[in-house]
Structures are given as structure tokens and as C-alpha cells.
Amino acid sequence: MALKKGADIKPAAGKLGILMPGMGAVATTFIAGVLAVRRGLAKPIGSLTQMGTIRLGKRTENNTPMIKDYVSLASLDDIVFGGWDIFPDDAYAAATRAGVLESKLLDQLKDELQAIKPMTAVFEQAYVKKLTGPNVKKGTSKMDLAEQLMEDIRQFKAKNGCDRLVAVWCGSTEVYRKPSEVHSTLAKFEEGLRNSSDDIAPSQIYAYACIKLGIPYSNGAPNLASDTAALIELARDKQVPLAGKDFKTGQTLMKTILAPGFKARLLGLQGWYSTNILGNRDGEVLDDPESFKSKEVTKLGVLDHIFQPHLYPDLYGHIDHVVRINYYPPRGDNKEGWDNIDIVGWLGYPMQIKVNFLCRDSILAAPIVLDLALFMDFASRAGMSGIQEWLSFYWKSPMTPEGLYPEHDLFIQLMKLKNTLRYAKGDDLITHLGAEYYD
Ligand SMILES: NC(=O)c1ccc[n+]([C@@H]2O[C@H](COP(=O)([O-])OP(=O)(O)OC[C@H]3O[C@@H](n4cnc5c(N)ncnc54)[C@H](O)[C@@H]3O)[C@@H](O)[C@H]2O)c1
């Protein structure tokens, strides 16, 4: 549903439950981080909802509130965490295994983390070939599994006294699949659930269960999940916000920062070669070519949409864009990415740029999970439903309504996000028009 200017935004009263299918490195780094911030042990760096401001009115007005105060987002103190995983480890054990955060910090949060235990998962080996775990549901059909998930959610909500829920998929990347007949309408999808269609992935069963219960759903992985006609139809019927897909963290974040700059100055591009070494469980899953294919597709789309080769054939008509991920266990979560960028300047003279990003995957992803959870809850309270394009800022491959191309330029994405908040609050949009000197 379209956003109304000056929408009637319901207050963020009571507890917000954040449900995560998949409680591995990203989910536990997010959970432990929020607990640490709550206790004043660390700062929520990288989170727009916690540290970002928004300018209102003209520059002369000096009115720049914190985003979280301006749109009254849920407070970190009101968050409750839940989720599912195919491994039964509690959040302390899973965070320790992931090896992202130091034990000195985790030990201070041990009791709270140990109390967060994953519910039994819906899993199918064919969709994540490299993992096998014991904490998995059995069911008579995929519809039965969806109903079991809905029962988990109801119980979680009642037990934790939650007022509202949101879900963010933090599970492994499933193998690449294109939508098939079963995804074309909701009726066919529900029929497919009853017949346990092979084409329905576990991530889609979670998405179905959540959307059916009116829970805003975000997809942090590159596989389809809610990005199908059937589930978009369900979201429309239930008036639920949807967002995805694939958190924009390391190398793709750099691409969507750098590429708009080259484009702005009309520097040409011959090629962009990106390679990574990564040693966490995500890297292990992506070592399977079929799971990597899902990732490759979301990573490759970015440059074409930013450079618009159809409008600038001389500059961007032929770009060699290559992306590689190599599983290399010694690095754990501390991914290293290399980019070689071949650009072209005045009169066609070539130049090169090298980027070497020594990043930490889950440290970059955790604040995105937090922001998405809080903004999706906001969207729901503001009566926004369907695909939330204003949250494209967070995605490698933003979901868009049929027929529209996604916006990948990080700076346009941020402007869109902030203007959406201003619009929802009934304030003037900031256009940077400059018709008067103080605009
Ligand atoms: N960290 C990043 O920078 C980043 C960026 C973009 C996307 N992602 C995506 O986020 C997801 C999580 O990444 P991670 O580093 O935490 O991986 P991870 O392997 O540490 O965690 C994923 C967890 O999901 C669980 N899982 C798999 N299938 C499941 C199912 N059907 N139900 C419940 N649990 C299931 C696994 O057991 C594992 O514990 C991956 O899909 C990854 O590609 C991560």
C-alpha cells in the first residue's frame, strides 16, 4: 500500500520480537551487539537507526534530530530475540563458534545469550548442500511444516509478551533457482505446500508462515525466498511489508559507493574484477557452486544499473565484470576483498584503481539487521505494505515492483530513505534544489 503523507503512525509501544531463521554468525553478532549496546559496553556503529540524524527544513533552521527520535522507532530495551537453526546451539555457543566477537565481550553477556535457543528448523538438504544438522522439524507436508512454524511464532509471541514481531532471514544461502509455476500465484503456492513441491525452498516456507501471520519479512540472503509473485500476493492480501534481498555489506557496498562517483564524473569503465577470500560457515556454504550462483547473480546486477550502458554506450557499453569468492578457512569471518577497476579518462586513456578491503563480514551485517528490523516495524506501524523500496539502501539486490529497475546508487538510496521518513511524518522533502541559498 502506498505511503500517505503525514501517515497515522501507531506508537512503538510494548515489546518487539525479532525472529531470525538462521542463528549463525550474522544473527549472533547482531544479538550480542544489541545486548552489549543496551548495557553501555559498546556503541552501535554502522547503524543508521541508532546513530543517524535527519535534517528537517532549511539549513538555516538547524533542525537535525536523531532518526530514532524523529520517527519513534522501537527502543533497544524493548527488543526480544528469537529464531530457528538446524544446529541446537544457544546464542552464546553459536557466537563463540562463529568467532566474530571476542570471548571477553561474549562472557559478559553469557547468561542472556545462553537463554536464546533456536527453535527446530525447516530444512531441506537439497537447498543447502554443505550443511547437515540435527535440529530439524519433521512434517507430513510442506504446509504442515509452515503450520508448525506458525505455531512456534504464536508461542514465542505469547511467552515473551511481544506486542509486535518482525522477521529477518539470516540463514544460509540456498541454491540458485528461478521462480517456477508453483510461485506464480498464491493459490498455486499453497497447493504446492500441500503437495510438498520440490520447487518450494525452506526459506519460502518461513516467508509464507511469517507473512501469513502479518509479520514484516526481510530476506538477508540472495536466494528468492519472499521474492516471488505468490508471496508478494500474500503480502498484499495481508498488508505486510516485504524487503530484500542480500545484505549489502563488504565488496558490493564499496561498489555502490565508488561506481556512482565514476559515473558522476563520466569516467568510462572497461572492467571490474572482484575476488574474495572468506573462511566462515557462509564461505563454506558458498563453496557449493549452486549456492554461489545465487550470490553471483545478486552481486553482478549492481554495476549495470548504476552505469546505465544503454544511455552511455561509449563509456559503459562493454564492461567485463567478474566476481569470485574463495573459501579459505584461516580467515574465518575476516573476509579480504580485492577489486581491480579499469577506468578510462579523457581521450580514452586507461587508468587503474585497486581496492583492498580487509573487512569483517558479520560486523558489517549486524547493524543492517538491526536497522531493517526497526524500519520494517516502523513501516508496518505507518500502514506501509508490499515491497519497501525505500529500504533499497540495505540490499545488494533490492526487490522492486514488476517492471521497475532497482536503484543501486547508495547516495540516491539514502536520500530516498530519508525522504520517505520525512514524507511519512508530513514534513517537506529535502531536494537540495538550491533555488534559494538556504535550501
Ligand atoms: N555477513 C555478511 O556480510 C553477509 C552479507 C550478505 C548476505 N549474507 C547472508 O546472510 C546469511 C547468514 O550469514 P552468516 O555469515 O551468519 O552465515 P552462517 O553460516 O554463520 O549462519 C547461517 C545459519 O543458518 C542456518 N540455517 C541454514 N539453513 C537453515 C534453515 N533452513 N533454517 C534455519 N536455519 C538455517 C545454519 O545452520 C547457520 O547457523 C547468509 O545467507 C549470507 O550469505 C551475509
Question: How would you sum up this structure, described in words?
Answer:
There is one protein chain. The protein is an alpha/beta fold. It folds into 2 domains: 15-247 and 363-424, 3-Layer(aba) Sandwich (Rossmann fold); 251-358, Dihydrodipicolinate Reductase, domain 2 (2-Layer Sandwich), CATH 3.30.360. The protein is 38% helix and 16% strand. It has 16 helices and 11 strands. The protein has helices at 25-38, 48-51, 67-70, 91-98, 103-108, 110-114, 142-160, 186-194, 202-212, 229-238, 251-264, 281-286, 289-307, 313-316, 361-381, 410-424; strands at 15-21, 79-85, 119-120, 162-169, 217-219, 241-244, 268-278, 320-327, 336-344, 350-358, 386-387. The strands form 2 sheets. A 7-stranded parallel β-sheet has the order 3-2-1-4-5-6-11, sandwiched between helices. Strands 8-7-9-10 form a 4-stranded mixed β-sheet. A hairpin with a 5-residue loop joins strand 9 and strand 10 (350-358). Helix 1 packs across helix 4 and helix 9 (202-212) packs parallel to helix 10 (229-238). The longest helix is centred in the C-terminal third of the chain and has 21 residues, at 361-381. The mean pLDDT is 93. Bound molecules: nicotinamide-adenine-dinucleotide. Residues 21-27, 84-87, 98, 121-123, 128, 131, 133, 170-173, 202, 220-221, 246-247, 249-250, 280-282, 285, 361-362, 364-365 line the site of nicotinamide-adenine-dinucleotide (NAD). Nicotinamide-adenine-dinucleotide binds at residues 21-27, 84-87, 98, 121-123, 128, 131, 133, 170-173, 202, 220-221, 246-247, 249-250, 280-282, 285, 361-362, 364-365.
